[in-house]
Amino acid sequence: MPMPSHGSARSRLTSAAIRIAPIAGILLLWEIAALSGIWPRQVLVPLEQIGATLLALASDGELERHLSASLYRLASGFCIGSVIGVATGAAMALSRNVHRLLWPTFTCVRQVPVIAFIPLLILFFDVEDSFKIVIVAMASFFPSALATHDAVRDIPESHREVARLYRMPLAPFLVRLILPATVPQVLTGLRLGLTRGWLSLVAAELLAADSGLGQMMEMGRQLFQIDVVLAGVFVTGLVGFLLDNSMVRIERHLGRWRTA
Amino acid sequence: MNRRVASFALALAFPALVLGWWEWESRQGSGHAYAFAPLGQIARSFAEMIADGRLALHAGASLQRALTALLIGGSIGIVAGVATGLSRVLDRTASPLITTMRQVPILGWLPLVALWFGNGDGAKLLLVSLSAFYPTVLNTQKGMQAIEERYAEVGRLYGFTRLQSLRLIAWPSALPLIFTGVSQALAFAWIATIGVELLFSASAGLGTEMMAAQVAARTDVVLVCVACVGVMGFALNQLFALLRIRLLHWLPAAGK
Q: CB–CB of B103 and A218 under 8 A?
């Protein structure tokens, strides 16, 4: 959220403090409960121990290994899925025949939650990296295709007519007319795709993986290391937040460029 | 008329092409038939799973889980949304917590929940309820905060008590957004149900059955389950949309 620019530095500080206070309160309650000894410390882990575990994981390269494996899968799956998605969505919106050919199937398959394809994909791709990249690609394909389709379809007919009148070739037609008119909506679709990709990837890694944040948490569960699991939850949440936040920033930036 | 036939033919062409390719792959030796179950085999498995009641058992278990969780998570979400929508103090306390919690994908909580609460039905219900909670609380809160000033004015004129203005003004005007929240919650709960069933393979459910079929390398059974998940999700969605129109018919824009 943008900070109100008129407020003084002090009032901004106060509003930040008000926002952080509840979280600090919960953490304090957690710490008190953990130290009270009602539950064993292995079950309700004190915060400093979670922090120490996180530091230990970070310093011996374990966290980096898992995080980079997850991010690599997310990045490649997202790139593949969203590029195909945007292209398919645009094609379905621009050509009536492509629409007739693909739209009914697209609508049917879209009804199935992507994580329901996990067992099927394991059968086809085994539990290697490719299976996880495919699941992320599928998760980001549908929102980006749908958003692009809707965005292109919503372009007023008059815009297209003008392009037709001037006999605009396909490439400039796409770059100068379609692209600027659809950027905000497509970006929202991409953001949704990224979020869904992350969710599906974590699920896939929990189920079957030899590395990745999901696998780190799953190993922690099997070895009854709640501190490792909690460190994993923290990093997973942080990554999700940073991804979403940076997409929002890009959206806002490009939105400004468009209206200028 | 001719046009409709043409578009119908094109709509069928793509799935027909995929199915033809699939069937062709399934005949390329036993190694291929392992992953590409022949179409006839899929149809036979479907008939078999209906006949022995397996499909109904698992689909029923999943449906029950999703709807129970929707009831729990959704009602807590609505109550929390009303409370945070009406009280600034509660809003400032709860909203940052909800926003922070939401950053973790639902299934990311799974290992922790498994360690704390085991992997029984209670743990599954907890996670699915959480997935239904987020959209209901957020939409309810938005609905409560977006009351038109003129309605609030009327309430003040009549000297409504807080309870009266909640029941007569805030609640009805928030209803459309509350319904939006519940319909999103229904979709999320269905997805989360399949997810927790895939990962906690303890009792009946479509997700559990799919995982078992995957381990047994039964692509046909997996595919029947995938189709069932898709059809049921779609049907739930449509049913809820009908219910919404039915219940909100007094609103000018109820259908939207």
A: no
Residue numbers of the domain that contains B160: 38-247
Determine, yes or no, domain membership for B45. Answer: yes
| B3 in any annotated domain | no
State whether residue B115 sits within 8 Å of chain A by CB: yes
Task: Flag whether A74 is in a domain.
Answer: yes
pLDDT in tens, B26-75: 888 776 667 788 888 899 999 999 999 999 999 999 999 999 999 999 99
* Residue B23 counted as domain residue: no
Please tell me the predicted confidence (pLDDT) of residue A260.
39
A44, part of any domain: no
Number of folded domains in chain A? 1
Contacts of A100 in chain B (CB under 8 A): 6-7, 10-11
Residue A148 sits in a domain whose CATH number is 1.10.3720.10
pTM of the model: 0.88
> ipTM, 2 decimals?
0.85
Domain count, chain B: 1
Quote the minimal CA–CA distance from A176 to chain B in Å.
31
The reply to whether A199 falls in a domain is: yes
Q: Does residue B4 sit within a domain?
A: no
> Cβ A203–B93 below 8 Å, yes or no?
no
Q: Is B90 on the interface with A (CB under 8 A)?
A: no
Q: Which domain holds residue A215?
A: 49-259
Q: What is the CATH number of the domain that holds B205?
A: 1.10.3720.10
Map chain B to HEC letters.
CHHHHHHHHHHHHHHHHHHHHHHHHHCCCHHHHHHCCCHHHHHHHHHHHHHCCHHHHHHHHHHHHHHHHHHHHHHHHHHHHHHHHHCHHHHHHHHHHHHHHHCCCHHHHHHHHHHHHCCCHHHHHHHHHHHHHHHHHHHHHHHHHCCCHHHHHHHHHCCCCHHHHHHHHHHHHHHHHHHHHHHHHHHHHHHHHHHHHHHCCCCCCHHHHHHHHHHCCCHHHHHHHHHHHHHHHHHHHHHHHHHHHHHCCCCCCCCC
Q: Nearest CA to CA, how far is B164 from chain A (Å)?
A: 30
Verify whether the Cβ–Cβ distance A101 to B112 is below 8 Å. no
